[in-house]
C-alpha cells in the first residue's frame, strides 16, 4: 500500500510539472517584458578583428507591438523598426523610405548582428506559439534551473525547430536559451546574466547571442534602463510615429 501511494504521488508530481511548464515560461516572460516596457540599450557586435557599437531605444506592448529606434552611431541614427501584429516595417531616413519586411526576412541578421529580425521584434511568442515540456532540472552558473523544451505548434509560423529554455527556479529569471533549426542542429545560444534591479524587479541586464558555427564571435545587448508597465497605447505603434520618434 505504501509503495502504491508513492507511485501515485510520483505520477501526480510528473503530471503537475507537465502542466506547469507553460506557466513557468509565462512567468519568466512576464517578468522580463511586463504588459509593456521602455528600454534604453547598447549593442556590441563583436568579431575577431573589430567591434561595432549601436545605441537604441525600444518600446513594446505585449507581443503584438514593438518599436526600436537607433540613436547611434550617426550614420544609422533615426532608423527605426516597427512591428504591429505579424507585420514588420523598417524606416530609413537617409533615403526617406519605409520598407515592409516580408516573413522570409525574419531569419536574416539584424543590423549585422547575431540577432535575427525575429529576435528583435519577437515575431513569435514563446508562450503562445510553442508547447512546453519540463525536462531534468539542472544548474546554470549557480542557479537551480528548470530546463524546458519548447516545440513549435503545428499551425505556428515560427523560425525555430526547437528552443531549450533554462529558467531560475527561485525568481523565474531567464538564464539561457538554445535555438535549434528544423533538423535539430544548434544555431544560436543566448546567455542572460548581470542580474540587476530595474524599475522594482530583478532581471538580467546583459544578453549574449553566440552562433554555434562561429563561437569566436558574439553580439552583446546591455540594458542601461528598463521601465515596466508604461502607459503606451496601441496608437503609438504607427508608421507615422516610427518616422518622427526621437
Write structural notes for this entry.
By secondary structure, the chain is α+β, with helices and mostly antiparallel strands. The protein has one domain (about 1-245): outer membrane lipoprotein receptor (LolB), chain A. It is about 15% helix and about 45% strand. The chain contains 3 helices and 14 strands. It has helices at about 1-35, 115-120, 240-245, and strands at about 35-45, 50-60, 65-70, 80-85, 85-90, 95-100, 130-135, 140, 145-150, 160-170, 175-180, 185-200, 200-210, 220-230. Strands 1, 2, 3, 4, 5, 6, 7, 8, 9, 10, 11, 12, 13 and 14 form a 14-stranded antiparallel sheet that branches. The protein is globular.
The Cα radius of gyration reads 19 Å
Could you tell me the number of beta strands? 14
CATH topology: outer membrane lipoprotein receptor (LolB), chain A
The CATH C-level class name = Mainly Beta
The CATH architecture category equals Clam
- CATH superfamily, please? Lipoprotein localisation LolA/LolB/LppX
What is the N-to-C succession of helices and strands?
A: HEEEEEEHEEEEEEEEH
Quickly count the domains.
1
Coarse morphology:
globular
Q: Output the number of helix runs.
A: 3
Largest sheet: 14 strands, antiparallel
Helical content stands at: 10-25%
Strand content: over 45%
Mean pLDDT: 89
Q: Structural class of the secondary elements?
A: alpha+beta
- The low-confidence parts are 4-19
Instruction: Report, as a whole number of angstroms, the end-to-end distance.
Output: 69 Å
Amino acid at each position: 500500500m505504501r509503495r502504491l501511494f508513492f507511485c501515485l504521488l510520483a505520477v501526480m508530481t510528473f503530471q503537475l510539472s507537465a502542466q506547469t511548464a507553460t506557466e513557468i515560461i509565462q512567468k519568466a516572460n512576464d517578468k522580463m517584458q511586463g504588459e509593456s516596457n521602455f528600454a534604453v540599450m547598447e549593442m556590441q557586435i563583436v568579431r575577431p578583428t573589430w567591434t561595432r557599437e549601436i545605441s537604441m531605444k525600444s518600446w513594446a506592448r505585449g507581443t503584438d507591438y514593438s518599436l526600436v529606434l537607433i540613436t547611434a552611431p550617426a550614420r544609422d541614427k533615426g532608423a527605426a523598426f516597427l512591428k504591429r501584429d505579424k507585420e514588420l516595417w523598417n524606416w530609413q531616413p537617409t533615403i526617406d523610405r519605409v520598407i515592409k519586411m516580408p516573413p522570409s526576412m525574419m531569419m536574416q541578421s539584424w543590423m549585422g548582428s547575431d540577432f535575427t529580425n525575429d529576435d528583435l521584434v519577437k515575431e513569435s511568442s514563446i508562450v503562445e506559439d510553442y508547447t512546453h515540456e519540463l525536462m531534468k532540472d539542472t544548474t546554470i552558473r549557480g542557479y537551480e534551473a528548470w530546463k524546458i523544451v519548447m516545440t513549435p505548434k503545428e499551425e505556428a509560423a515560427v523560425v525555430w525547430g526547437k528552443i531549450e529554455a533554462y529558467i531560475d527556479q527561485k525568481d523565474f529569471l531567464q538564464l539561457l536559451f538554445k535555438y535549434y533549426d528544423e533538423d535539430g542542429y544548434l544555431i544560436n545560444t543566448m546567455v542572460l546574466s548581470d542580474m540587476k534591479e530595474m524599475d522594482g524587479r530583478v532581471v538580467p541586464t546583459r544578453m549574449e547571442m553566440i552562433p554555434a558555427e562561429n563561437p569566436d564571435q558574439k553580439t552583446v545587448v546591455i540594458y542601461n534602463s528598463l521601465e515596466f508597465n508604461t502607459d503606451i497605447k496601441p496608437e503609438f505603434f504607427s508608421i507615422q510615429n516610427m518616422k518622427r520618434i526621437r
